Fold:
Amino acid sequence: MQNDEDWLFSGFGEVYPAHVSAFVDLMLELRRAFDGDLDAMLILAIIGDQRVWKRAASQDVSYALRGETPLANSEKVASNILSIASYSGIPRETVRRKVNALIDRGWIDREENGDLRPTRKAATDLQHGTEATIAYIREIVEVSDRVRRA
Structure:
């Protein structure tokens, strides 16, 4: 088994091509799901990250919870147009337009305090993207395990 410090470097020639191939498949699926609008995809991902996953790593969050917010309101990170624009570097007006389009699609909504959150409809409509993400992660884990065992 490879030393934990060097397995990625020594196996880079096997890991990187697998990553690129699986990543391309993932991005193509997401591009289709978002009608080519990768900024909208990124904005929804940021909202999901800020509202759902930022503090969920230590909790038991299974795939079965998709579309649910596994955090108490007091643990959530604020998610609004300004915070998304600041974090992503996407101009605020662009974020505003994309957020409105995502609201129109039913993929995000606003809470009483104005914060944005992903909806169950987003999880349902983007199921193929979730499956493509799982396939991407699976490919990376499998090739990484193979290289580490070498």
